[in-house]
Amino acid sequence: MVGTAQDCETAAALYRELRPDVVVVNTHRDAGRALDIVHALSGARSPRPAANALVLMDDVGAAADHVLQAGVKGVLSSGSSSEELASAVRIMATGRSLLIPRTREESGDSPLEMLTEREVEVFHLVTRGYSNAEISVELTLSQSTVKSHIQRVMEKLSLRNRVHAVIFAYENNIIHVGP
Question: Which residues contact 64 (CB under 8 A, 6 or more apart)?
Answer without folding.
Answer: 57, 75, 99
